[in-house]
Amino acid sequence: MSLVDRKSQFQTSWPTVGFAVYLGILAAAHIGKVPPALLQIREELSLSLGSGGLVVSMFSIVGMVAALALGITSDRISQRTSIGLGIFCLTIGGVSGALSNGFGTLLASRAIEGLGFIAIATAAPGVVSRLASNADRPFAMGIWSSFMPIGFATGVCLSAVLLQFYDWRVVWISLAGIIAISGLLILRTFPKTSNYEEKIPFKKIRIILIRPSNWGLSIAFGAYAFQWITVMVWLPSFLTSDMGISILQASIATAVVVTVNIPGNIFGGALLGAGWCPFKLVAGSGATMAITCAYFFSDPFDSPILILASVLIFSFVAGTIPATLFASAANGQKESLGIANGMLMQGSAIGQFLGPPLIGAVVAYNSYNWSAAAIPLVLASGLTVVLVAKATKSTFNQ
Questions:
Q1: For the purposes of burial, counting CB atoms within 10 Å of the CB of 146, is it exposed (0-12), middle (13-18) or buried (19 or more)?
Q2: Which are the contacts of 275, defined by CB distance < 8 A and separation ≥ 6?
Q3: Residue-averaged pLDDT of the chain
Q4: How far is residue 103 CA from its own chain's centroid?
Q5: What mean pLDDT is predicted for residues 273-280?
Q6: Most buried residue, 49, 90, 287, 390, by most Cβ within 10 Å?
Q7: 94-103, 124-133, 252-261, 387-396: lowest mean pLDDT where?
């Protein structure tokens, strides 16, 4: 047993936990780097709007297809090896993307990057869980759950700054270099063995895959992602069309709304660490999300200030849900956390992929009346609460 393993039995190895979260942030930055560069990419490679959208959504497609398989791989080959594979894919994908000269090669490079992102997103939570004490684990998982909004915002900011001086290929090369150098330095601090000395047998994998609590958490994450990403994607359009504010003001407002999700993640982990019942936390958050999204899309008082306040509340309380889901997965099956996280990420990818086009179609069908968007979003909140209520009964003794 390594020194880190012995230490983790008594106290949380916060520096290594921080390194794992940092790698998750860098992986998620590969999603955020695209939106600011998309116009330049489309002009240079002569891409249509639909092709440009496919470059953005490729990570969700890879997640839907490969997340579960990569989660199983993580439990079979060790979390450390899986993270190393993810770093390699992100580096190779970034470099090949920077060298691409057409839509096909760029899309292939994004698929490779997507594999790298999912490999890290499914394996790194296992490192965080393993190196956190029982008392600190819920809070540590809350910190981990913030990797996506922090990473996305980091990628957007880094890309926007570099594009002021260089073209998009420099953005790709820069982020590939950062993840490669950081990965080589950080991997040395991770445990070299899996949570258990023996690899998880395939017979047990089948049992884990049909475990109802895992499917409940996965579908709940999909319902949550369906809500949150949909609101973030369509918020600028809603603010400009219904509130009459400029696109710049709408973009700034959306950035603030995305950012406020981050303290929500950490706050959720802190509440779980303080002994809050996971179901009660999700029930309160789900109810608040349902009320606030119904309010800001129906806009009864025609007040941009109240609209912004309600959507800020929506995003903040939403942050407690992924914290709860990751903590539930970590608490439920430590010997198969890669599989559980793979199922979580697969559910999230499906929700992200389906949400924006489905809500867009609903709004368009109702003569571009944005209040119609509230109905499926409220239903998704209810589904999240019900599934978490059932799933957490078997993962937390409450």
A1: buried
A2: none
A3: 81
A4: 26
A5: 82
A6: 90
A7: 387-396
At position 331, the amino acid (one-letter code) is N
What is the token pair recorded at 195?
């949570």
Q: Identify the band that residue 66 occupies on the pLDDT scale cut at 50, 70 and 90.
A: confident
Computed from CA positions of residues 124, 129, 131, 135, in that sequence, does the dihedral angle turn out positive or negative?
positive
**Domains of the chain and CATH, by start:** 3-199 (1.20.1250.20), 207-395 (1.20.1250.20)
- Residue 199 per-residue DSSP state: P
pLDDT at 102 exceeding the cut of 50 = yes
Nearest Cα neighbor of 346 from 195, 209, 232 is 209
Expressed in percent and rounded to 5, the helix, strand and coil fractions of the chain are 85, 0, 15
Separation between Cα atoms, residue 331 and residue 319, nearest integer Å: 19
Tokens of 117: 């992102």
* CB-CB contact of 207 with 264 (8 Å): no
Give the other-Cβ count within 10 Å of 237's Cβ.
16
Distance between CA atoms of 200 and 29, rounded to whole angstroms? 31
**Percent of the chain scored above 90 by pLDDT?**
16
Contact 82, 119 (CB under 8 A): yes
203 contact partners, CB below 8 Å, separation of at least 6: none
